[in-house]
Design a protein that fits this description.
303 residues, 74% helix, mainly alpha, Farnesyl Diphosphate Synthase
Length: 303
Amino acid sequence: MSIAAEPVDPGIKVTTKSPSLSVMLELMHPITWFAPMWAYMCGVVSSGQPILWNLPLILLGILIAGPMVCGTSQAANDWFDRHVDAINEPDRPIPSGRLPGRMGLWIAIVWSAVSLLLAIPLGKWGFGAVLVGLTLAWAYSMPPVRLKQDGWLGNLACGACYEGLPWVTGAAVMVNGRPDWRILLVALLYSLGAHGIMTLNDFKSVEGDLRTGIRSLPAQLGVERAGIVACLFMAAPQIIVIFLLKDWHFYGQAIAVSVLLAAQIGLMIWLLQKPKERAPAYNGSGTTLYVIGMLVTAFALRP
């Protein structure tokens, strides 16, 4: 696969002005770092290992999960999506010309290399997980793979990178080996639930997706049906988690996750009345309840 840049779209502004650090930081969308950092901490908690004794390793893992790997994925995505962003969000650093030339691409490349170097102290499990995460990050955005061309596959990859993979990594680094099978199962379920969160995030870019051939779920199914699919993806894995917690005799945590899910369902009913307009608000409310449930489940899984 080649990472050579395509000719710059005429609609993208060109400037020779050197970008500021704030523009480069904007390229990596710091607000998106929270999800993998939180999932990594869920993995740490679920491992049952002492936190204070392992604090340097934990902090390194959080740095890699958020600013490094997630930052890389955002930079790569913005570079390969610059023509779509010129339609949907022309004020972003690359289409606006505030990040000139191929600098966005080079930032993604350098950040990938630094991420791998930083991952060496995490051991073979941590290093392997970072390598998988970076591979998925580039495969999501870069032709010819470009998983985001199909909303089903692309959102699956995103869910894995944002929730499941960081969770498993946090647990694996703490125990220096393969985590308990229950941790792997729960991480997989919360990854599947994140598929729905990624679908909601696609509502803001339907116009550009339709014009550029990106088959996000809102572009494929329409906003209303995509909203229903997103809610089903978010709710179904949590229902399974509740039954698993009950089966494993974690009754208090099962009740807590049930209450959090009930609140989410109430918000989902509100969301589906105007899915495109209300998706950003749901991402700030329903998604918060979702990740709190992750942490509750992580505490239940502690040995």
